[in-house]
Specification:
Blueprint (H helix, E strand, L loop, with lengths): L1 H17 L4 H23 L16 H21 L7 H4 L3 H21 L2 H4 L2 E4 L2 E4 H25 L19
Antiparallel strand pairs: 1-2
Helix pairs in contact: 2-5, 2-7, 3-5, 3-7
């Protein structure tokens, strides 16, 4: 019986050591990282000459989509980090890939910093968001949903132009990565 109790205690301690300190933030951040990777992967895959591409006049160009996503990072992560939306007007002011890519990377860095400062306890704090109250983590998760909504637009644009989107690329087995 003592051996069984010792095994249970060991399993509990090992499990506690594997669990992140802030599991809510950790999971949210990991899902956000997928959206960030898909968006930045799209930047790398879409050539400069397609940044003005617009399937129909009623939708954004590729450049406008990336700029819009950049604005969203400040808008939604600002609510979580600062209690208010932050406006950078990237979509209104920047037009070229050379201008938008650094701004997009800075915008993702802003959200990365918001995640880095947040704990699970902080995540539960209510903030104002589009005339309603949501948790800080809810604002961060809304940002991820927004990213993926517009990644879906980018996927369509890429498919129209014969480009395989980052999320559809063949996955490399873990053993072959880094070689």
């Amino acid at each position: 019986m003592k051996l069984f109790a010792a095994a249970l205690l060991f399993a509990a301690v090992a499990s506690a050591q594997d669990a992140p300190a802030n599991p809510l933030i950790t999971v949210s951040k990991n899902i956000y990282a997928i959206s960030k990777g898909d968006i930045l992967g799209s930047v790398a895959k879409i050539p400069d000459d397609l940044w003005s591409f617009q399937p129909v006049k009623e939708v954004r160009t590729v450049a406008q989509l990336f700029a819009h996503v950049a604005d969203g990072q400040y808008e939604f992560c600002g609510v979580a980090a600062e209690g208010k939306s932050v406006s950078k007007d990237i979509e209104k002011t920047l037009k070229t890939k050379a201008e938008i890519v650094p701004a997009l990377k800075d915008a993702f860095a802003y959200c990365d910093a918001a995640y880095a400062k947040m704990t699970d306890a902080d995540a539960a704090v209510l903030v104002s968001f589009f005339n309603m109250k949501i948790t800080r983590l809810g604002a961060m998760d809304f940002n991820t949903a927004h990213n993926m909504e517009h990644y879906g637009n980018l996927v369509t644009y890429m498919r129209i132009k014969g480009i395989v989107p980052p999320s559809s690329e063949p996955r490399q087995p873990a053993a072959s990565q880094g070689k």
